[in-house]
Amino acid sequence: MFLVFPSLLFTGVSPVMANATGTFVLFPGAYASAWVYRDRLVHGRRLQGLLVLSSALGAGLGSELLLHTSEQSFSHLVPYLMLAATMIFTFAGKLRSAAASHAAKTTHLLPLLAGQFVIGIYGGYFGAGQGVLMLALFLTTASIDVHEASGIRLVCGAFSNTIATVIFAARGVILWKVGLPMVVAAVAGGLAGAHFLKRLDTEKARRAILIYAWVVTAWLLIRSFF
């Protein structure tokens, strides 16, 4: 979403439609990434199912909240949503380290599902950075390791995006002529990116995305004031 949403804004797409189209563009790639991580999903299917359900319910609510936000109001919120997402991404490493150092010995089901529901709402409304939040939540409230947590967050993110996409499509806020060609690139990127993350050091890529995200965020903030 860091790359897709701003690029759609730059082409003149309205913020709500850019967000909805970006969600559609990314959900096939999310399934591709989740498929690559399928060998890491060794925890109980019941827990995974509950997390997916929490994500889906939250995403449904978040999507409806977005659709009930006027274009003008959402335009004012966009710079701050990008700022929050960029800060999450900036401090992702520290968040993961802090979560890992406080890793749960047992699974605390109620906080886990409640937290996932709230993250799902954010995912349906905007979504950038939700993967980092899920990873931190899983490590601190569930007795799973970081690799399995990464796999589960991809599955939850995929289902969350699917629910949001269905709602956005039903309401006619997806720009299909732009979104459909971008899906092909998103699927290819999802497959390649997941393999890359499993095998290589991604620090250089992370820094490049960070620079881009901060530049875009600064531009949006300046534009909102002037």
Keywords summarizing the entry:
mainly alpha, single chain, globular, 226 residues, 81% helix
Could you characterize the architecture of this molecule?
The protein is mainly alpha-helical and 226 residues long. The protein has one domain (4-225). 81% of the residues lie in helices and 0% in strands. It is built from 10 helices and no strands. The chain has helices at 4-10, 15-36, 45-67, 71-90, 92-101, 109-125, 130-141, 146-170, 176-199, 203-225. Helix 2 packs antiparallel against helix 8 (146-170) and helix 7 (130-141) packs across helix 8 (146-170). The protein is globular, with a radius of gyration of 17 Å. The mean pLDDT is 83.
Strand content: under 5%
Main sheet attributes: strand count, strand direction, barrel closure: none
Oligomer state of the chains in this structure: single chain
**How many beta strands in the DSSP annotation?**
0
Structural class by sheet pairing and helices: mainly alpha
Number of DSSP helical runs: 10
